[in-house]
Amino acid sequence: MLLSKGVGFFMIKLDNVTYRYRDEDQPALKSINLEIGPGESVCVMGANGSGKSTFARLLSGLLNVQQGQLKISSPRSRPIPVGMIFQNPDNQMVAVTVEKELAFALENLGYAQSDMDKLIGHNLQKFNIVHLRQRLTTELSGGEKQRVALASVMIFQPDILVLDEPESFLDEEGKAALGEELINIKKQRPSMIQIHISQYPYVASRYERLLVFDRGEVIADDAPQNILADMDLCERAGLRFTNRAGQRVVIPSQTDRGGRSGSGALGSVEVDKIRFAYSDSDYVLRNLSCTVRAGGIVGVVGPSGTGKSTLGSLICGILKPTDGRVCYLDRNGNLVDPETVAGRVSGVFQQPERQFFLPTCTEEIAFGPKNLGQRLDSQNVEALFAMAGLDADTFADRDPFTLSGGEKRRLAFAAVLSMSPDFVVFDEPTCGLDQEGVGRFILLARGLREKGVGLVIISHDGQIMRSLADSIVYLRSDAGNLVMSCDEFFENPLYRKVVSPVDQLDLPGQ
Ligand SMILES: Nc1ncnc2c1ncn2[C@@H]1O[C@H](COP(=O)(O)OP(=O)(O)OP(=O)(O)O)[C@@H](O)[C@H]1O
Ligand SMILES: [Mg+2]
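# adenosine-5'-triphosphate complex -> structure
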């Protein structure tokens, strides 16, 4: 339907839209009334679980409107008017290789082979993923997947682009490229609508309009500078974390490593000249050595695909190095049998749902300790929910797979810390968390450090590194690895190429 711009013209219109997931008492979206006109670009913010992704899924037709009305009018009658970048890029991939992923929508739209080849080549270049063309989509790093996802959606030029936290797994270069790409798209296609869900105020400030979701309702719809200046509103809606003096996150006592403290507890993990290759030829890590000490925090940084998560899995003992060793030492410096470190060296992975396999959140939290022969009582479980900032009454019996992105990450924190590990690897821990969650994570990490737990934090977030890490392992794609103190890392202004600028986010100080 070709519509002309004029009074009453809209591209997206929601009339009293309410959405309730099956079996849930509370609706995820409540009476949403909204109009988004042609060419408008909107940023969407809100706390974890406030309904942002549900809104995105309704717009892209993944969920059907149950109550109220949603109208999408496309002036060009595109066959696929809405393109969506998912919060978790794993949910996006449908094809075996990157090339086939880019071809997928074009094939469905009946493009000729020669046109497809041209478009695929052009988009691989534009999104800087030419080198990934023949790679398996299942074997890409998180950041690589996100770039492939964006290329595979932009290739069919949708009228409406919905981006659900697209920067979550991107490195700095990837984030900058995405920002530029969104501006370019806008210039080339002024009538296109962009709806960009983000947890970052700096992303919102690039937009003229910001919508704030709070418990399923739109509580603010205004210019970002007006909304972000309202501290009370921002704090209420999870857009801001205020570090009140002395505020702490209580780490429940059974995660106090009580039974194992003293000589039985691990004192350090030493990564000794390791090399690692997934296949015969390509080494992901070469000659890397570093030490994580009890009560110390090592930050791991580096561009997408340089082996950060691989290093995390090696430290946890999930992968074995091709050459070199990962040694576990007790407090007296004696070698500990790696077979005995299960549960003592644990990881919260980049995509938390990969760790879930039980029907309820409570069982998920209780599983680790049960496996180690410990029992959590209901108070312990409640305290772990509280530590993660999840309401126990609401979440105890929920299926972990139905949680929102940020809720899943919070649950993963509780499910891993329930085992009272001596060392924890956090892979992109703040990805998908709202600002309250980011602040909570910083307090949580400090609490663990005080208890003598050793941490490895893999992150692109400069503020997390600055406020937590003692030393930095910098994995570089070109010239090998660097291990340095945190101060040394931040003294070099080039740090901005690897992590986000430290002055950008409003987070708790030391
Ligand atoms: N498949 C599902 N089944 C049941 N409840 C769900 C499902 N998906 C989401 N929810 C619930 O609906 C509410 C809104 O979830 P949604 O994913 O839209 O939040 P969000 O704002 O995107 O959060 P986040 O910032 O964590 O990504 C939450 O309470 C969530 O737990
Ligand atoms: Mg979401």
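# post-check
Residues 52-53, 87, 164, 404-405 surround magnesium ion (ligand 2) (CB under 6 Å).
The domain at 253-330+343-497 is CATH 3.40.50.300 (Rossmann fold).
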